Amino acid sequence: MNLDINLSDMGRTPAARPPASLPLMRLTGASKRYDQGDSVREALRSVDLDIHRGEFAAIVGPSGSGKSALMKMLGLLEAPTSGGYQFQGVPEQSLSTEQRLWLRRRFFGFVPQAFNLLRSTSLQGNVALPLMYRGLSAERCQSAAMRALAVAGLEDQGHKMPDELDSTQQGKAAIARALVCNPSVLLVDSTGPTSDQPLCPHIGGLLRTLNTEHRITVVLVTQQASAGHWAQRTVSLNGGAVEQDISRAAAGALH
């Protein structure tokens, strides 16, 4: 997939392709604080983190460790309170609201923790929604939705309603909906009500396939350290700071 950011599409001067060594996403001393009435909660503390094109990184840690704040920052949904974030060399603080939206729609696919499937709409209709919001024809939306469902292994389930599916199938449907716009980066939040359970092998295997065969950069946030089995790299957060950053190869060398 083409990961170039065409800055001319955002009303800016076109830029040369960044060096291949430049990280796709880079956090530098990034902190995130939330005002909570008379107090301040520090979700992230001086995080330095690079995510490269084609990586599958699992961000793991206990509840309250800063995982969700980190994912929102990577996906340009929230900005650091201090420090910096760059997406393919473009500093987030230099972007307007419209430019952030353009980048999110062009490059990112989000899989929320609760899946957020509409119970009154078929699976195919759920997956087609992001394209319908962009004004594409119904025929193109439905055709793209069926292709995304096929990639997720649900090609024969498009007519079903979400309540007819088990939790694994619903998770695959949420992934298909994130894929329908052909993203370069998939951000998966697996910190929901079943976060105390190991990552389902069917979901872990699908994410690995999307990474290795479809060349999508995958960032998975989860409470389960065992999810690192599916990823190339495990980044452990604790108290809003990076506690450990181990690649699968390096982890294997420790045993």
Helix/strand class: alpha/beta
Please trace the helix and strand order, writing H or E for each element: EEEHEEHEHHHEHEEEH
Globular, elongated, flat, extended or rod-shaped: what is the shape? globular
Proportion of residues in β-strands: 25-35%
CATH architecture: 3-Layer(aba) Sandwich
Counted by DSSP, the helix tally is: 7
Main beta-sheet annotation: 6 strands, mixed
Low-confidence stretches: 1-17, 250-255
Number of domains: 1
Please list the strands of the largest sheet in the order they lie side by side.
Answer: 6-7-8-3-9-10
Compute the average pLDDT: 87
**CATH topology tier name:** Rossmann fold
CATH evolutionary superfamily:
P-loop containing nucleotide triphosphate hydrolases
How many beta-strand segments?
A: 10
How much is the radius of gyration in Å? 18 Å
CATH class (first level) name: Alpha Beta
Helical proportion?
Answer: 25-40%
Give the termini distance in whole angstroms: 35 Å
